[in-house]
Specification:
Layout (H helix, E strand, L loop, with lengths): L1 H10 L4 E6 L5 H4 L4 E8 L2 H8 L7 H23 L4 E3 L10 E2 L4 E2 L3 H8 L3 E2 L5 E2 L7 E8 L20 H5 L30 H4 L2 H10 L3
Antiparallel strand pairs: 1-2, 2-8, 3-8, 4-5, 6-7
Helix pairs in contact: 3-8
The structure holds iron/sulfur cluster (2 copies).
Length: about 220
C-alpha cells in the first residue's frame, strides 16, 4: 500500500511527502494515532519573485496551494480508510471542535510540529517552517493514521536564522518579535498571530526563500 499511496500523492501534485512517528507524543497530541503523513506543495519561484517585486498584488497561488494541500490530505485519509485503517486529515474543514482552539489559534498537533519531527527544517523568527532547500516557499497539510508506514523521524534542526532580522524588519504591522525558536517555546513569544495580516512578506523576503527562488527561477 505504501508505494501505491506515495506515488499517487506525488501524481496528484505533492512535491514532498514525509511519514513521521508520532506514537511517543502525549495522547492528547497524537489523539491515539501513531503515524503522521506530511504533504507539501511548493510555491513557484515565479510567484515568489512577483511578490518580492510587488508585481503580484493578490497572493492567490498561496491560497490555491493551501487548499490543494488540504484536498490532498483528505484524499489520502479516504484512501487509507478504504484500505481498512483509521486516518484523519488535518484540513481546515476537519480541524474544528476539539482539534483547533479558535481563541488561541492553535491546533492540537500542528503541521509544523510534524514537519520538525520529520527533519524537514526549523522554525524561523517568522514562525514559519524553513527548509534549507525551499525556504518557506511551500504549503503543508497532514494526515494522522494507524496504518503501518515506514517512518523517517530525524533529529530536530535548530534555527539557522543567526543574526538575521529581515522578517522582523519587513513586517508592516510589527508583529514579529525577533525571538529565536526553541523546542516547546510558546508561539506568542515569536509572533503576535492575532494581528498578522497574512501579507506573506516575512515568507517571501526570508533569505532562505530568496535562495530557493534564485536557484530555481527561469528568467
Ligand atoms: S504575514 Fe505579513 S503581517 Fe504577518 S507576520 Fe508576516 S510580514 Fe507580518
Ligand atoms: S527572514 Fe531571517 S530571521 Fe526571519 S526567518 Fe528568515 S532567516 Fe530567520
Amino acid at each position: 500500500m505504501v508505494n501505491e499511496l506515495i506515488s499517487e500523492i506525488n501524481f496528484r501534485g505533492a512535491n514532498f511527502v514525509k511519514t513521521v512517528d508520532i506514537s511517543r507524543l502525549p495522547e492528547k497530541e497524537n489523539m491515539g494515532y501513531d503515524t503522521a503523513i506530511l504533504i507539501g506543495i511548493l510555491l513557484s519561484p515565479e510567484f515568489i519573485l512577483g511578490l518580492s517585486k510587488e508585481t503580484i498584488a493578490v497572493p492567490s497561488e498561496f491560497w490555491e496551494k493551501e487548499h490543494r494541500a488540504q484536498e490532498l490530505a483528505e484524499w489520502v485519509a479516504d484512501f487509507i480508510v478504504g484500505k481498512g485503517y483509521k486516518a484523519f486529515a488535518q484540513s481546515d474543514g476537519n480541524l474544528i471542535n476539539g482539534y483547533f482552539e479558535e481563541a488561541t489559534k492553535t491546533s492540537v498537533l500542528p503541521h509544523k510540529k510534524i514537519a520538525i519531527l520529520s527533519g524537514l527544517g526549523w522554525i524561523g523568527k517568522n514562525n514559519l517552517l524553513i527548509a534549507e532547500e525551499y525556504g518557506c516557499a511551500f504549503c503543508m497539510c497532514t494526515v494522522l493514521t494507524n496504518a503501518s508506514l515506514s517512518i523517517e523521524n530525524k533529529k530536530v534542526i535548530m534555527p539557522k536564522c543567526g543574526g538575521c532580522t529581515v522578517c522582523k524588519d519587513i513586517c508592516p504591522v510589527n508583529v514579529i518579535h525577533g525571538t529565536t525558536w526553541e523546542p516547546n517555546m510558546n508561539r506568542d513569544l515569536i509572533v503576535d498571530v492575532y494581528h498578522c495580516k497574512c501579507c506573506l512578506k516575512c515568507l517571501v523576503h526570508c533569505p532562505w526563500t530568496q535562495n530557493y527562488m534564485k536557484s530555481n527561477i527561469t528568467l
